[in-house]
Amino acid sequence: MLIMGEVRTGLLQNSAEIEERDHQAVLGLLAGERVRMSRRPIVYAVSPDLLTGVDCRLPSASRARIRGVGTVVSRSSITGGRVLQGSSYVRVTRGEVNYRLPWSHYLARPGVVEVLGKVSGPDVADGFLAFGAPGEHLDLGSVSDRFMDVVQESPVLDLRAPFRSNRTRLRWVAETGEPGVHFTLGEGQERTLKVTHQGEFSPAVVDLCEDLALHDWLLTTLLTIVQRARIGGASRPEVSARLAPAVDTLLHLWMPGARIHPSLAALWESLERTPGFSRQWQSLVERIRDQLAVNTLALLRETNG
Fold first, then answer.
1. Where are the domains of the chain?
2. I need a surface site. Which of 73, 99, 197, 234 has the fewest CB within 10 A?
3. pTM of the model
4. Tell me, what DSSP letter sits at residue 256?
């Protein structure tokens, strides 16, 4: 069985962190279902699971015509009252028959897409990770984006983000096998992740991919802020003003692996070795703090002089 998903990550369009009581209103995407929330080690809220019916071609590296029918599981989440994610995934399996069944059959198997005919798991996985043209095949990213947009349209939000940022796109596939993980930084905002794990599929795999997507976005966004600050090319007060949003909004959100199931902790640890997210993050944080410290000392000299 092949599991594949896509996580979109971006900044919540609000001038400040939303309060805990507002998460229900912002993420309450399904009437009658409550938003789940945790407060340790950081405030995290996630919407109820949402289903989207699909009947379309599946991606294929060999360009084979593969038809899949079923449902996509999606959810939106907010971390630290600041970062919004839209996440969608499916489990791809061979259908029992080669024709489409009534929708009641597929609704009884949430998150499963059945293939009508022959299918090769590696062929579908490679096609999915290739980021082909949108609209031709199953587009989990568009489903994730749609639910993010619904959240951003909430009247609770003032639509005044503290800085400009882009959404990142993480496509992932998971298969059974010897435990391992391979992350690739693609063009622009595209990233791919291959996960192999032992045993049956667990939602913990989705949590791992979402946590990686979150911290990749944090690192990418912090790097962009540092570049925009033009350290060495702008005045110190200008540099400090441009770095301030990072201090106010991002630095306290870095907690890699905090929500990862212990059975998958080794996979995150391997990502910390290569490519080494935390090493680069810490280097950027130290550079920001050094710049702010130097500017503070310069202001004190001017004041005392």
1. 2-163, 219-304
2. 99
3. 0.95
4. T
